[in-house]
Amino acid sequence: MAIQDWSEKIIMAELTGDPDFTDDINALTERMEKEPKDVVLNFSQVKFLNSSNISRLLKLRKVITDSKHRLKLCAIPIQVWGVFLLTGLDSLFEVAEDTATALASLQM
Question: Which residues contact 81 (CB under 8 A, 6 or more apart)?
Fold first, then answer.
């Protein structure tokens, strides 16, 4: 995963598929526990989500929202979006069509 400090308040992370997905989300969660910021997760390279991935996403969401910051997901492929819809995750996460839209919404 490429993690980029977009600004002093926003981190941009580009996720990849498993097995890196798990390690990437864990690393990002640890970072947010120490230094909370708003986060944009780019899903464009993710091909599927399993229950372990979903669990880690929910933990990251909790860490970020508990610190009064925001988490935006973007560029979610259609097959992954299907998992979000079936599991009800679409109602828990803020989603944007692309990275530019996600970043702009956090800066407002």
Answer: 90
Put the strands of the sheet holding 94-96 in their side by side order.
2-5, 10-14, 38-42, 71-74, 94-96
Q: Is the pTM for the entire model greater than 0.90?
A: yes
CATH of the domain at 12: 3.30.750.24
Spell out the residues 6+ positions from residue 19 whose beta carbon is closer than 8 angstroms to its own: none
Q: Collapsing DSSP states into helix, strand and coil, what is residue 69?
A: coil
Q: Could you state, in chain order, the average pLDDT of each consecutive group of 10 residues for the chain (108 residues)?
A: 85 89 92 96 94 95 97 97 95 96 92
β-pairing verdict for 38-42 and 2-5: unpaired
Domain of residue 91, residue span? 2-107
Q: How many domains does the chain have?
A: 1
